[in-house]
Amino acid sequence: MCDFSEGIKLCSCDKESIRYREASTYVRKKGKLIEQKNPENDKIPLEYIWTLFKYEGEKEVTEIGRYLMPKNDLGQGLNAQWVALNLNCTNCFDFDYNPQEGDSLQIHKNIKFDTYLSFVYRNGEWIVDHHDPWSTDISELNQGKVKPIDK
Question: What is the DSSP letter of 71?
């Protein structure tokens, strides 16, 4: 795995180049949960992925449900405060992008339904926060792979 302690670069790439691993499944055997390995996952390298969203506005809440809340640390030097510091101190994107109020960024492993970091651009800076998916209208702007900065 990569070490992101020196900083991050958000590299845009073709969606087809991003391959996702299946989430872990578990079965109960003799009162214990045992992870079922998916052999197809071994063919897909573990990577960190970012997705950038444009804030479209608030919407009427028409759905009820739960959603996975963001985490503060994904490991390998990717913790929310460190990433926010990088986003605010350097241009981490490899394409021409000027953040707009309400835009959001999520970073996660290429594992379906896995934990993620979430940031929202508010008052001229990226902060650790997220949009409620039931009441916020967002659209995807771009996505790619998170790469470490080599010093």
Answer: P
